[in-house]
Amino acid sequence: xxxxxLSDEDLHKIVDVLLPPIVRELSTxxxxxxxxxxxxxxxxxxxxxxxxIGDIEYGKMVADAQTRLNIRRAERKKVLLQEKVNxxxxxxxxxxxxxxxxxxxxxxxxxxxxxKRPRAKKRKAEDIDIEDQLLKDDE
Length: 139
Fold this sequence. Notes:
Elements: H1 2-5, H2 8-27, H3 37-53, H4 55-86, H5 88-113, H6 125-135
Region (Disordered): 82-139
Organism: Pectinophora gossypiella
Protein name: U3 small nucleolar RNA-associated protein 20 C-terminal domain-containing protein
């Protein structure tokens, strides 16, 4: 509703804030995996923005947001690699923490498989329907 109710000028002012999370959500994860509710929401918002702004302008903005996202990822990766050289003790400690997290996640998964731990409850379809009602356009 927000995107539909905004004028083009107002939308251009806030699109720089709205677009990066949408691009990030759509670019991460497996394309073949079933889409989560957040990914579906991002997809719908992206389509509404595309209709409102126009294909060419939207494409340019998405490419720009994707570039900034990739630059930030590369910078984080570079910092971690530099840490391995400059501070190997800290890097080793981080690596051990990551291993421990993976170990705990695997343990929880196995406990859930064997029925020792209750599974996380999935959201009901009713909750998702509310989101659909909120996102409907008055077209």
